[in-house]
Input
Amino acid sequence: MSPNRVKRKIWVIAGAFLVLAVPFFILLFTDSDHLESSQSLCPFKMMTGFPCPGCGITKSLVSLYEGDIMESIHHHLFGPLTFVFCLLVIAGLTTELITRKKYFRDLFYSKRIAYFLGGSLAVYHLTRVIIFVSSTSLDEILHQSIWK
Amino acid sequence: MYTIPSFKNDPIVVLLLGIVTCGLYLIYWNIKAAQVINAVAEREVISQPVAIFAGCCLPVNLYFYYLAGKEGLPKVYERTGQSNKDQTTLLLILGFLFPMVAAMIVQGDINKLYEPK
Output
């Protein structure tokens, strides 16, 4: 395994760890009610008031850590999946680094799985945007951005 | 054997479509841009799963722009005869704050591949 590849795997593990750690610290230091009402830190939502495809995943992970799976799915359908995926990435790549062998290449680099999940996410996001637009007034949309 | 797929867009269109579709277009854009970059580099610099999830997950998006800036775009510059410049930091910052703008920059560089020499 080349040093470049090892370095890249360490970065990916660190990224996955960060994805799991940030909601944990939010859970520790923030009230759930405050999380619901506070300004989203997503740059797209801050600019436009509309959700991006990844909006809600952090809140979803916070709810998951609280043990509320239904609330977690309500925030983002892919939140629990992100949790499982990050755990798999951390465990899989750490094992690969230790044993210097490749175990999960077929899973992580499967085009079929990626296209299926990407397509599902696109459909989910499109549905979410349509529901958001039909159920949210312009004033509320502006309120979710940084412009109001 | 890698054939460079046709993917010429006005960068402004990338920006507008990214905003109008609430980021959905960027999932498609990431896939196509990764295909072009891989074809130019003649190896898989950005895998398809990374390209797809870059459109919906911020850490993966940053990884996408890191790969594009560090390993992908230098090959594009080499092919188009431009001087080599490292845009990784700029793309990482823009990828974090305004992914549509980072996509505009990459699209602008990709477009040069299709200009007559």
